[in-house]
């Protein structure tokens, strides 16, 4: 399925339909390469948004700089509603805390429109590791400080900060090994070059079900329907993890300067797309949770998480 979705560059996500009032299609900018989880989620959403807007929606991949290049593309776009950002939360809440040269302020230079979905990560381990669950892992890490290594898709990525928060809350010392993407990190977890890693449930579940890695816990508040036998971190009984979550979200942003009327119309279209039956089905299959909300929901959530990550990532910088 990923291969079918992994079309290069800007790809038409809906069949020809009537265009926007200004005669232009809608460009949905994604900060990750074609074929990855965010791109897959965006392409599925683009079809539903196209129905809601009765317009062509084109997915335009602009990967790089922790997905912030896509944000900058939208910051510089004309505020006419024809360019939107399918934004992953890390680019809005983590990047401002670790990137010295971010050329814009996500809190001030973009216009939030509406949320799309939440996703959660799962912690998996090499099958030969001596621990089976969260309590075992924490006990092992405390007995061997700094010995356990974990992979991520890069400094400041969602699975990096998820593990940084886990280590802080569980009061353990772990060794971070950043990779250029989740795929090579998972390859080395399977091969035993690193011990553990977080990955999005939709991706990690296939490796778990095939026996290539073993699950430790999911970062959602409740067990995931696709993996009912895998406990949450909250079930571990560890005090520091009683409220722990590991995941992120997607939301739609527009260039600053769109009119309130445009924002309202776009937000209504996003909410209609989120409720689309086919999108709900496909997202559920991939482990995503639809998030139907308001513009203010996005503003509040982003602000809260920026503050949270500022504390967790203190001292971490990425030029």
Automatic annotation (TrEMBL):
Origin superkingdom: Bacteria
Pfam families xrefs: TctC
CDD domains: PBP2_Bug_TTT (cd07012)
Keyword Ribonucleoprotein: no
Keywords tagged on the record: Signal
Signal sequence residues: 1-19
Family to which the UniProt record says this protein belongs: Belongs to the UPF0065 (bug) family.
Protein name: Tripartite tricarboxylate transporter substrate binding protein
């Amino acid at each position: 399925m990923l291969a079918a979705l992994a079309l290069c560059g800007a790809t038409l996500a809906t069949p020809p339909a009537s265009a926007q009032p200004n005669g232009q299609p809608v460009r949905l900018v994604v900060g990750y390469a074609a074929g990855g989880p965010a791109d897959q989620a965006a392409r599925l959403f683009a079809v539903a948004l196209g129905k809601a807007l009765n317009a062509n929606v084109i997915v335009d991949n602009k990967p790089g700089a922790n997905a912030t290049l896509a944000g900058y593309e939208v910051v510089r776009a004309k505020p006419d509603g024809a360019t939107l950002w399918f934004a992953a939360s890390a680019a809005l809440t983590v990047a401002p805390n670790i990137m010295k040269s971010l050329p814009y302020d996500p809190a001030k230079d973009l216009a939030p429109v509406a949320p799309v979905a939440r996703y959660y990560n799962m912690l998996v381990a090499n099958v030969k590791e001596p621990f089976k669950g969260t309590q075992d892992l924490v006990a092992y890490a405390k007995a061997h400080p700094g010995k356990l290594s974990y992979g991520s898709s890069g400094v400041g990525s969602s699975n990096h900060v998820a593990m940084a928060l886990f280590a802080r809350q569980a009061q353990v010392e772990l060794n971070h090994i950043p990779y250029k993407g989740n795929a090579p990190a998972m390859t080395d977890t399977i091969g035993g070059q690193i011990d553990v890693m977080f990955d999005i449930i939709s991706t990690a579940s296939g490796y778990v079900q095939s026996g290539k890695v073993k699950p430790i816990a999911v970062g959602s508040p409740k067990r995931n329907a696709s993996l009912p036998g895998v406990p949450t971190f909250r079930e571990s009984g560890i005090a520091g993890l009683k409220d722990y979550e590991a995941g992120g979200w997607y939301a739609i942003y527009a260039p600053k300067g769109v009119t309130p009327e445009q924002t309202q119309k776009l937000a209504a279209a996003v909410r209609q797309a989120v409720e689309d039956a086919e999108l709900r089905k496909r997202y559920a299959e991939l482990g995503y949770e639809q998030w139907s909300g308001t513009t203010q929901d996005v503003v509040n959530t982003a602000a809260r998480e920026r503050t949270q990550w500022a504390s967790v990532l203190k001292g971490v910088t990425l030029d």
